[in-house]
Amino acid sequence: MSDLVKRSLSLSGHRTSVALEPEFWAVLDTIATVRQQSFASLVATLDATRPPERPLASALRVAALMHLQKELKTPDQ
Predict the structure, then answer these.
(1) In angstroms, rounded to a whole number, what is the distance separating the alpha carbons of residues 30 and 16?
(2) Distance (Å, whole) CA 9 – CA 26
């Protein structure tokens, strides 16, 4: 049994779906909120800037990881 959650969205006018663990979706939702972007806009931005050899799901996981690493380095205010 997989604990992946699939979300469907449109990227560049094409429908696609991505399956990630719920924990990654939660971080990505947070990133969109912090950036004041819609979730679809965030994914479109990440999709447009990922290396062509990196799958979208992988790019989303890396973006979530990088966000968390940045938060860990930022001192509390």
Answers:
(1) 21
(2) 16
Q: Taking the model in full, what pTM does it have?
A: 0.87
Is the separation of the CB atoms in 52 and 44 below 8 Å?
A: no
- Of 40, 64, 57, 62, which Cα lies nearest the Cα of 5? 57
> How do the pLDDT tens digits run along the chain, 77 residues long?
469 999 999 988 899 999 999 999 999 999 999 999 999 999 999 999 999 999 999 999 999 999 999 988 866 65
- Which runs of E-coded beta strand occur in 5-74? 5-11, 14-20
- Cβ pair 64, 27 in contact under 8 A: yes
Q: Where are the domains of the chain?
A: 5-73
